[in-house]
Sequence to fold (280 residues):
Amino acid sequence: MTTSEAGQGVSGPPTEGFLEVPGGRVHMFRGGAGAPVLFLHAAGGAGRWHEFHELLSRRFEVFAPDHPGFGGSDGFPELEGVDDLVFHYLDVIEALGLERPHVVGASFGGWVAAELAVARPDAIGSLTLLGPAGLRLPEHPVADLFLMTPEQVVGALFKDPARATALFPGEPGIDDVLAAYRDMTALARFSWHPFLSNPKLERRLHRITARTLVACPADDRVIPVRHGARYAELIPQARFSQVDDCGHAMYFERPGDFAAVVTEFLAKVEAGTQQSGASR
Fold:
């Protein structure tokens, strides 16, 4: 990592490669230097290094794998549900040799991150959930993107549709269409029924011991903000915050704001760990 004149870290270009784990190869970007951050992506945008990653990597070493069946990762057909993804990511952490990384998950990835923290609270250094899926709140239903036209999907994901070009090209090519189809097929495999939720998750969140931040976009039309607030109520000592003027595609629509919120939280966790002399 180099340092700018303003004293703010500037990361170099990320490396791109594959990680061998039981069941196949994981496509992954890796960039920056510092404490390790494992980023678990949302349903869209796999297979790319985004501005949000780059901003986080100015302070931390960011590992951004594609979920099984998404982006450039192998299909891992034997994995059938989010419970399988928990063990998959424990394999990823072990294969990377990471010791209690910070885990950051967004939307679908937030659900996976929460389940990972429930199953192995000792394995992570901190937990950050960004507009997380995973809870079943009948009074605050999750929007079903599978039933929407492409135009409706953009309108649901973004407060400002003009920001959608980072995720949805104006004139998608055949590769873009095939990539989106592959990602949505994988999402359906892991979350079709019950839809984007685990009804048992609420009563298990008390097991999380890592310091936790839940941050939500204030104008989320896909996963109501109430879901994030519920996570924060049930996870011991979790913090809750909102980013105004932003839709569900949070780290595409306002990457700088979300990177700032996450970086501030992780920096405080790191500072607290160093003061206590405890291992992260």
About this structure: Residues 1-8 have pLDDT under 50 and may be disordered. The CA atoms of residues 217 and 243 lie 5 Å apart.
